Amino acid sequence: MFVRFRTMSLQTSDSCPSFRDGLSLLFVCLMVFLTLPASAQQDVQEGIISGSVMSGSGTEAGVWVIAETDDLPTHYTKIVVTDGQGRFVLPELPDALFKVWVRGYGLVDSDPMHLRIGAEDVKLRTFTAEDPLLAAQVYPANYWYSLMEVPTEGEFPGTGRDGNGIGEMMNSQDRWLDLTKQGCQLCHQLGNKATRTLDHLSHIDFNSSVQAWQYRTAMGIRGPFMTRYANRFGPRGMEMYADWTDRIASGALPPVPPRPSGTERNVVITQWDWGNESSYIHDEITTDKRNASLNAGGKVYGVDGGHGALLELDPDTHEWKEIVIAVKDNPDNPAVTRFAQQFAVPSAYYGDEALWQRPADPHNPMFDELGRVWMTTKVQGNKVPQWCESGSGNKFAEYYQSRGSERQASYYDPASEEFGLIATCFGTHHLQFGWGKNRMLYFSGGGDVIGFINTRTWDRTQDEQLSQGWCPMVIDTNGDGRISKPWNQPVGAMRSQNEGGGGGRLVDVDLTLDTRVSPGSYGIIADTQREGVAWGVGTEFPGRIYRLDIGDNPPETCITEVYELPVVDGKPTGFGPRGIDMDSNGIIWSALSGSSHMASFDRSQCDVLNGPSVIDSQHCQQGWTLHEIPGPNMKGTDRKADFHYYNWVDIFNTLGLGENVPIANGSGSDSLIALVPETEEFVHMRVPYPLGFYSRGLDGRIDDPNAGWKGRGVWANYGTNFNWHTEGGKGTTSKMVKFQIRPDPLAK
Fold it and tell me: The whole model's pTM is what?
C-alpha cells in the first residue's frame, strides 16, 4: 500500500524527497498522503486523475482526455470522454507518471501535463483549431475516404479498357463500391494520413498521380495482392484514387464528424502496446464465446499472422510475450509461408526486407472450455494425408473429396505451454465452437465444404482422421427433405448478372435434383439453438448466408440452406457481409462491410426453406432487417464510406449495453459500433489515439460479475497489416484495446 503512497502526491512532475533512510521516506510520504483532502486520498487508492477541459470558447464537452505512460513494461494508455460540462475522470490508473492531454474534433491537440494518480481538479487547456484543415487531421479515416468520387450509376456496366475504362466485371456502382471495400480496405484503412496523401513517395518523380498510384499499389510484401485487385477496376480505378489524393492535396476537406454524445461519453478505453513494429496481429481472444467468465482476469491472446506467433498479454502486470507457433516436422510436406519473400517494387518503409517469414500463418484464435487457445494455422504443407482422398475408405472423402487444405488447425495450452497440431483435409480460416456436448469446432475457409472437428473425440483418441469431417453444401432443391445424389453442380453464384447477383453464370438446373453450391465461406458461427448446426457467410456479391445442418450421420445427412440479401428491382438493399454471429434468441447478425448496415436475419419468418423456389436464394426476403450505420456517404452515392471487417454479438452483456447487442468493427472509422436492438440506437466507441484503429476480431469477458462496469469489458486489437500506417508511422506497434462503459462520464 505504501508503495503507492510514495508517488501519489505528484500532481505535477514532482516526487517525494528521495531519502536514503527508508523509514524517513515512508514517514514523509505518509504525512503527505494524510494531509491530502479525503477525496484526493480516495483518488489515489483507486488510481484516479480528474479535472476539466477548457478552451477560449469555454468548457469542452465530448472531447477525449488521453493519459499515456512508458513507466510500465509496455506503453500504456487510458482514454475517457468529457461530460457536458467538460469534466473528466480517468479511472483505474496504475501507479506511474502519465502524460495527460486532450484531443477533440474542432480542437488542436493540447500540450501535455505530467501527472500521477490522485491529481484532482486538473485544468487542461486546449485551443480551437482556427484552420479547418488542421482540425480535419484527427477525423476518422472514413470521413476522408468519403471524398472519393466513384463513377456514376449511369456509367455502368463497365466495358473494359477499350471502352469506358471500367472493368467488365463491374456491372453496377454498388459492385464497384463493394470491391473497394473487399479488396482495397481488406488489409488496412483507406483515408488515414498514410493513404490519403502521396507524401511517402515525394522522393520519386512521377509523370502523374495515376502513375504514382500504380507504383504505390505494387509496393512491398502486399504489392502482388494489391495489383491484382486494382486491375479489376480497369483504368478508371487508378484515375479515381489519383483524383482523390489530388483534390485532398488541393485543399478538399471532409465533413465534420459529431463529437461523442450520450452513452458514447461513458466509454473508457485502455490500451497496451504489444508485438513489434512489423507484427501483423490479425485478431484476439480473451474468453470462451459460450462462457464469458472463462479465463476471468486472465491473460489475453492475439495471433501474429506475419510472424507465425501467438502473443500473450497480462493486463495486470502489463507484460507481453511472443510464443512461436509450432509446425509439424515433416520434410516431405513442410509448412512454408504464404507471404512473398521477394517483390518487384520495394516498400517505401522497409525496402526489400521480407518482414514475414515464419510459416504458421495463424488466424482467428478461440478459447475452448478447457482454457486452450485454438487457431487456424498452417501445421504442414498443402499436401493432404492419403486418408483425405477418395479410395481411402474415409466416408467423408468417399462422399465428397474436399479441394484440399492450405491452412489447418492447432491449439495452445497455457497450462502446459504445449501445442497440439491437427492436419485437416479441408481449408480453414475462421473457427467457432458449438454449444453441445461433442464440443464441435466448425471451420470456414474450405470454399466448397464446411469442416469440423469433434474435439471431444480428439481429446479421447488424438486421432486426426477419426475426429474430423466435412460437408459439401447441397441445397434440397427438389424438396424431398433430404440430400441425394446426383446433384446439380455449381459454377459461381446461383444468380445471373442480369438478376443482380455476383457474376457467375446461372447453372443449368434440373429441379428434380438437389443442388450443390460453393458460396466461398468466410465467417462462421455455431447455432445457439440447435447442436449440429452452423451458419456461414458467402461473400460473392451481393452476399448471402447459409445454414448447414450436419444431421445425425454426416456427410449423408448434411443439408444446406442459402439466403441471399434482398435484391429489389435488380438492386441489392445491402451488400458485403463478412462477419456473422447469432444471439441467444436465434437471430443471425452480420455487419455489411460494403453498404455499411447492421443486418439481422430471422429464419422463423421464412415461409419456404427448400424446394424449387429456393434456387435463386431470394425466397425469404422478409427474414432480413437492415439497419444503416451512421456515417458519411461516398461522394455522389447513397452508400456509406465505412468498412466493417467483422462483427460479434455480446450475448452476456460484457459491455454494459444489455444482452444480445451486436457490435460491428468500424475498421474504417477508428471505432467499434454497437447497436442496441431495443432502441435501434448506434453507439460509436471511438479510439481517437493513435489514429488508425483497424480492428478485425473482438470479444467480451466478465472478470468479476459483482464489480459493475469495472468487472466487464469488450476487447479488440489494432489488426491492420501495416502498423506503419498508424499514427506515429514507422516504429509504431500494434495495441490491445479494452472497451468499458460506465454509468456516466464521471464514474470512478
Answer: 0.92
